[in-house]
User: Fold this.
Amino acid sequence: MNQKNAIVTGAYGAIGQAIAEGIAAQRFRVTLAGRDRASLEKTQNLLRKRSFNPDIFIEVVDLSSRQEISDFSKRWGNPLSLLVNNAATAPRQRTENGEGVEMQWAVNVLGYVRMIRCFEPFMEDNTGARIVNVASYWAGGLDMRDPEFKTRRYDNDVAYRQAKQANRMLSAAFAGRLQSRGITVNSCHPGDVNSKLSNSFGFGGSESPAQGAATPLYLALTEEVKGITGKYFEHLRQERCQFSLDPQAVEELYQLCNAYGL
Ligand SMILES: NC(=O)c1ccc[n+]([C@@H]2O[C@H](COP(=O)([O-])OP(=O)(O)OC[C@H]3O[C@@H](n4cnc5c(N)ncnc54)[C@H](OP(=O)(O)O)[C@@H]3O)[C@@H](O)[C@H]2O)c1
Assistant:
């Protein structure tokens, strides 16, 4: 039997682990991508036990790094059926990665873009391959003239909201580009879950990780959404995304991200 391959980023985080578990339960070969080897191995062991699926693999990759994402894709030699971009960070102070790019822009936005651009070549045409971008209802305030807070005062919540807006707009941008190959790209709000990320805003969360994973898994696995692309979902339902209505702005953002390079 030809098993399908899936990659989940941020896979030892609260929601990421629950997403990976749901995909593992469907007998995919699941690659957990994250930056901390020990946490990846712990999640790998846990998911192998819980899902009775031995085909759980790990990849150590700092998703803020252009080079590390590129190296990851060069190590990858398989067809890919499913990519779930889920990793996110929201440091309280403005921080830059090793390449001098503001950290939320690097991980939460460019990380998603580079994962798609580096891995879509492994997705086979017209086989129902899917890309799911975990975004949020908590989104807005994107400033394309100052995406890295070089002139604006940095606030982790403001930077986060603009990143999640960008995730939603870029899903529409990639959906248009990949449609002719039968690859779908959708984004969603997962749920309000207690996590390192939500704690960095001073919040907890009222939903369990499994509840938070339900909509990403709906987009990743169900027949119901087969062929749907470029859309935004909350609570297992398609919702209107006000950010993706302006094709010119969507294209401008896509070009802005591309200018950072692969
Ligand atoms: N929790 C909520 O209520 C909520 C609500 C709306 C949307 N979301 C979205 O859901 C997704 C998952 O969030 P979560 O709440 O599950 O957060 P989380 O538990 O903090 O998980 C985030 C994951 O991303 C990883 N990550 C961060 N920076 C990275 C980097 N440079 N390289 C590789 N991995 C990195 C983290 O690893 P480290 O631990 O090593 O940093 C962690 O595994 C995010 O996209 C978030 O925007 C969450």
Observations:
- Residues 10, 12-16, 34-36, 62-64, 86-89, 107, 134, 136, 138, 164, 189-190, 192-193, 195-198, 205 surround NAP (CB under 6 Å).
